[in-house]
Description:
Layout: H1 2-7, H2 29-61, H3 66-89
Helix pairs in contact: 2-3
Amino acid sequence: MNDAFRLLQAPPAPADEPPRPARRLRTDHESVEEDLLRLVLTVVELLRQLIERQALRRVDAGDLTDAQEEELGATLMALHDALSDLCAEHGYTLQDLNLDLGPLGPLLPRSD
């Protein structure tokens, strides 16, 4: 068990990056609703990215027919567009959904 915890230790912070201050928890009604919305959108984006990676693996493995590949691609693009529209409607970008997990780093991989 000690080995598992040792593997989860925080990576050293880069020397050129100042430590980030801890965020305070705001409990007013408006901020709780906004934070919950952002969390839900983040979970949807995480699931979309996971499904997209799985779909790419299946395409690379040749498990799908051409029609299935087209339908899956169109569905994933529609989901991406719908999520982008929801984010824009509430004043977020897709990059805003990337939660900072502290020593573990960001939740979502950086999209370059």
